[in-house]
Amino acid sequence: MDDAQFPCTRCGLCCQHISHIEQLAKFDRGDGVCIHLVDHLCSIYDDRPEICRIDEMYHKAFKTYFTKEQFYYENGKVCRDLQIRYGVTKGE
Ligand code: SF4
Ligand code: SF4
């Protein structure tokens, strides 16, 4: 599964809830929304910080603890929880 990509629906919810993420503190516009989120998309995608890059974070910090499938599954649970909480049923 190493060539797989995380099945992000581009709902943008993770980028609207960054207040608990220390590495993104300078991007918080004050209400938990990232200053770089524009129309549900990251406006600095190619230059986004490492913490926003799921595969890089997996290889750097989590691969000792999870298979990639497990890591995607755990991250996907957070996405689904956010989507349920905010009534989002599809991306964009
Ligand atoms: S919450 Fe999950 S599905 Fe939505 S944009 Fe973020 S990573 Fe993608
Ligand atoms: S930098 Fe981009 S990917 Fe990271 S939280 Fe902000 S909008 Fe989302």
From TrEMBL:
Show the InterPro entries listed in the entry: Puta_zinc/iron-chelating_dom
Q: Which Pfam families match?
A: CxxCxxCC (PF03692)
Protein name (database record): YkgJ family cysteine cluster protein
Q: Which organism is it from?
A: Brevibacillus choshinensis
